[in-house]
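It would be a great kindness if you could assist me with a short task in structural biology. The matter concerns a single protein, recorded as an amino acid sequence and a row of backbone structure tokens. Could you please explain, in whatever detail you think fit, how the structure tokens follow from the sequence? Thank you for your consideration; the sequence and its tokens are set out here:
___
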Amino acid sequence: MNSFLFLIIGLPALEILIMIKIGQYVGALNTVLLIFFTAVVGVYYARIQGMSTLRSAFQNAYRNKVPVYEMLSGASIAIAAFLLIIPGFLTDVLGFALLIPITRKIILSLIIKKDIKKNNENVIEAEIIEDKKDEL
């Protein structure tokens, strides 16, 4: 609940603060133009990365491989495009970090490792012993 509250209240406040600070240095009009420019360039780059990921997924499916990385990569590209559409510099930095293939791979590997550790803690190993086998 607290992290959700931070996202709703804290993130826009932080974005406005960053916009004001950048606006003091480059001017209000240039700040607004920079926000629009990053949104347009980011969405265009997300489109290019999305098509590349889709092409790679089809190639893996054609080779009878499960395109797990491509599915995760496609989801992160969609999140990145959403972050780039939201006006603000902090969300743009996070969006561009998800669009760059190297940083996207690092972020996805951290998430996957965290999920694997979480799943391994809940595993209970056991052995099934059957006294009566296939009685008909």
Remarks:
- The longest helix spans residues 28-62.
- The chain has a mean pLDDT of 85.
- The radius of gyration is 22 Å.
